[in-house]
Amino acid sequence: MNDHLKSRITPAPSSKYLTAFRTRFGTFRWKVLPFGLKVGPAWFQQFINAQLHDLLDRCASAYADDVLIYSDKEEDHWKDCQEVIWRLHQANLQGDIKKSRFNVTKVDYLGVLLEAGVGLSVDPRKVRSIQDWKFEDLRDRTAIRSFVGLCNFIRVFCYHASGVAEPLNRLLKKDVAFVMGPEQREAFDQLKRLAIEAPVLAFFRPELPTRLETDASRNATAGVLWQEQPDQTWKPVDSSLRP
Predict the structure, then answer these.
(1) Domain span at residue 77?
(2) Where located (predicted)?
(3) Which DSSP category does 117 fall into?
(4) H or E element, residue 120
């Protein structure tokens, strides 16, 4: 859908000169949204939201050109799919059928595994990528930045992952000497453990009993939202950490 969506968005006439580029054949301006503009993703999202406005949070979710269609019942799912596809067709947008999956109970969406009746879980491929790292690979700030960036998704499942990574993030500061010591080794090992042990986050259901646990220190505030499941077990739904 990406290329089709791009061709539907045109910059304002007064802004087209900002897209100008020079070649040996002369200077040219884009008539449609090009890749690389800082405001491009926001335009992208606004356009998609406008097409699916009343379906969002009811049976659809959209992040740029990644559209997720969900339903409570299988018989409703096909109706919801038809409605979303019709909206996209009305906007002259086309999807890639080879990249689309229909009527499934488990799907990878934006790097997170969503499974009906279960919840959100860590993508095993990302866990393997983290486990492939060795402490000796963290030779410089670039390597640390890559490893910590790869671990960022853990924060969705373990709010304290940011605090665990602090000894590594500290070395990214220009005024700090680059010294890998026991503290950094412990942070590295613990992040790898968190990736393996990350809990499954249950889907929020407004009818279930809900509990919010909070904590605070000098450096940050944190909270975990829990819900009691039909089997009377409490499962986390969301977690957050704010410095």
Answers:
(1) 2-103
(2) Mitochondrion
(3) T
(4) strand 119-122
Q: Are residues 98 and 139 in the same domain?
A: no
Strands 221-228 and 234-242, sheet pairing: antiparallel
Q: Is there a single domain that holds both residue 177 and residue 233?
A: no
Q: Identify whether residues 142 and 217 lie together within a single domain.
A: no
Q: How many angstroms separate the CA atoms of 30 and 27, rounded?
A: 10
DSSP string, 155-193: GGT-TTHHHHTHHHHHTTSTTS-----HHHHHHHHHHHH
Q: What is the DSSP secondary structure assignment for residue 29, as one 8-state letter?
A: -
Of 73, 103, 133, which residue constitutes the final position of a domain?
Answer: 103
Alpha-carbon dihedral sign for residues 111, 103, 237, 233:
negative
Task: For residues 67 and 18, state if they share a domain.
Answer: yes
* Interacting residues of 199 by C-beta distance below 8 A, sequence separation 6+: 157, 158, 235, 236
Q: Which of 154, 143, 139, 241 is nearest to 191 (CA)?
A: 154
The per-residue pLDDT for range 192-217, each reduced to its tens digit, is 999 998 889 999 999 999 999 988 87
Q: Record the tokens describing residue 158, joined without a space.
A: 């373990």
Task: Return phi, psi of residue 62, to 5°.
Answer: -135, 130
pTM of the model: 0.74
Segment 81-134, tens digit of pLDDT:
999 999 988 888 888 888 888 999 999 988 889 999 899 998 889 899 999 999
Q: Encoding tokens for residue 157? A: 């499942």
